[in-house]
What we know:
Helices cover 26% and strands 34% of the residues. By secondary structure, it is an alpha/beta fold.
Amino acid sequence: MTQNSTEIVVGGLVLAVAVGFLAYVAQVTGVQSSAGSYPLTASFRSLEGVSVGTDVRLAGVKIGSVNSVDLNTETFRADTVISVKDGIEIPDDSAITIASEGLLGGNFVEIVPGGSPFMFEPSSEIEDTQSAVSLVSLLLKFVSGSGE
């Protein structure tokens, strides 16, 4: 009988550690539900290095993530939906850019706030976009000497 209760206790501990580990992984990787956030849309010429789940930052602080990326076959642009945490209001003249964490770092979406007293409503479109800059194309222009 003591062997059975020991196995039950050890099994419970293993299960608790597994649940704790999964919660930790979800927190570290930024997996979160869309509850407590609102969507904004933007259309980019190029989303190089950005995919679903990429961080959305304001002043270097993560305020959301990229929810979806679709190709608009009429405009040939990348239509993007991002989520922003509730309570963070973005001025309606703000810009959205694709930024890099460094020379070898990954890309993220950065919101550059404007000065308007009016804020974006949920599902509004951010029209001022700046696409990703390809480091390879910049290096090729530098090497070939066609830096006009």
